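Minutes, project check-in
Item: structure for the 460-residue chain
Input as provided by the requester:
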Amino acid sequence: MGTVVMDSRPGRASRAGRQAGRPRSALDRENLPPEITDWVLHLRKLIDSVFPTDSDAAKALGVSTPDLSKFLAGKKAPERAFVANVHPVCDRQSGTRSNDQAHQRTDALYMRALEHLNPPVWQLLSALDKRDAAVARERAALRNLALTRKWLNRAEDEAERLRQELQAARAESAELAAKVESLLEQVRRLEEEAVVAEAILIAQQATTAPPPPAKLDLLVVRGSGAILVLCTLTCVVAIGAALVGATLADNATPWPTRGWLAAGSSVLVAAITDGLRHKALKRLGTSSNAASYGLASCLLIIAACTVPLYLLSTGIRSHQNYLEHRSEATASVTDCTKQPDASPGDHGIDTPTYKCTYTWTISGHSYRQREVGLESEEGQKTTVLIDPADPSTMLPQKVALWSWVFAYLLAAVALALPVGALRVYRTAQNETMAALRRVQRITREAAPRKASARRQKLPL
């Protein structure tokens, strides 16, 4: 006897007719071909996943319960209409939708099982499938033939349209050739008129050409750029000396005063040089854009360098005040506990850190504070930094690294800004000299044009 498999699905305990609790008999895999076994297991899986009882499934599928039991036991082959109706009924019951691959797999399993359950019907259905496939291929071939004829007709219509367009293009080409001939004739006439107009323009330029530039103006323009750059660098260095002198030295020293005097003198010389340069450029006939770079760019460079230098000097002064006004005291180390979660980068990779209590005495008063340090021996003496305003507060033992990084960054900015600004001013100076060279070229060409106009006796 086969092994009995109990079915624990809900609803089988209340079935009428055959007892719902009675389990469905297991498949006799030894006596059934594997094709029938695969088909029955697949059909059982579809029905059991949706319907709680076989009677519900038979009612929904339109067959009797005994026939459905034979289908599920592999003793009888269902009709093909039943197989085609399984997936739609299960989809409506479960509210889902199976894909085409599931339909094809169910039909393939059914045909393989039908070959063993009912060979004549299988042969008939196979022949019908082959016939349907042949009919489908024939219909597809007819559709392709009709589509090909349609595209062929369209191609013939397109060819006829292109032939008509070609004829129209040939006619238009003849018209365009005639127009080109007339345009060439107009071009020849315009060239003759342009020669006369150019001669008249040369004569007018010869009469209105600017006088040759004075050597003094050229010298002022060439030398003013170097003077402005020198004054800018001098002013930046003077301001730096004044700020550093006021920070590192006493205010009574002459360095700050001398620095500010040198900076003011540099600005005054730059203003006078810029005025002379502006007037020389106007006399040379250059545009306003060429004369726009001058004192404004110098002041911008000075301001851009002064701000980082001032911030750097302020930071250095604050650090000096911290070093000058701190006080030291001798403290005893007690109650040290090792820190398990200390960062290894604070004091070294393998160096342990301890949190200890530091006790110190100032003016007969005892103070204590718990801090993290390297000391671990009880009763050890060490020197700590005390805030003079609050003797009960310890100050950091070293200057933070980020303050030095900030100072170096400010110094780098203070050096990079003047270099970039001077490169911009150098570009403007090159544009000014290019404008002057254009003026000189026009002046050199004016003399021969004027002589040519006089020889041709053209109206001026």
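Outcome recorded: The two ends are 131 Å apart (CA to CA).
No further action items on this chain.
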